[in-house]
């Protein structure tokens, strides 16, 4: 499955469904603590990674000019080392990203100008939001490299899926099998719901479809 088809299929699945599939294969990919700070918006796209470090006062660098290189439908993934004392994303970036058609931003850290992002219809997932600027406090150390997102490794180009329940990372080499397994499990759960709504007890419906074994890989 090529990347375009992977993204099409990923957008049909929720983060709980993908998380269950990751569990089935005993794979990492669930991101801890990040949540939507701009309302209930979901997206999927390829990671465009940025890593920040504390500012070098002898040679201060940029805080956000990389946005010119990000393509539509990419997801900006920012590692600010989990800092909550200063932001690495604000209103200017939200408005530019929305205009460019960027899918969303996820941050191992905090963002600001939340109302501006909401008004622009731009989704942000972060540890929280805070008003203090990152200028003269942090600077970009690397773009398009490996980053830490809530304890999960993200490589440039990985698939990012985010919704009301959080954020999931799918490494490209395993994305297809995880998506396929998530789709299979979703179909089974849909059958359980159908049987239950048709009058079968939950216990009977779950037993019929081996619900309690869905996340167990028989080969492990």
TrEMBL record:
Source domain of life: Bacteria
Obligatory cofactor(s): a divalent metal cation
InterPro entries according to UniProt: RraA/RraA-like, RraA/RraA-like_sf
Stored Gene3D superfamilies: Ribonuclease E inhibitor RraA/RraA-like
Pfam families: RraA-like
Residues annotated as signal peptide: none
This protein's name: Putative 4-hydroxy-4-methyl-2-oxoglutarate aldolase
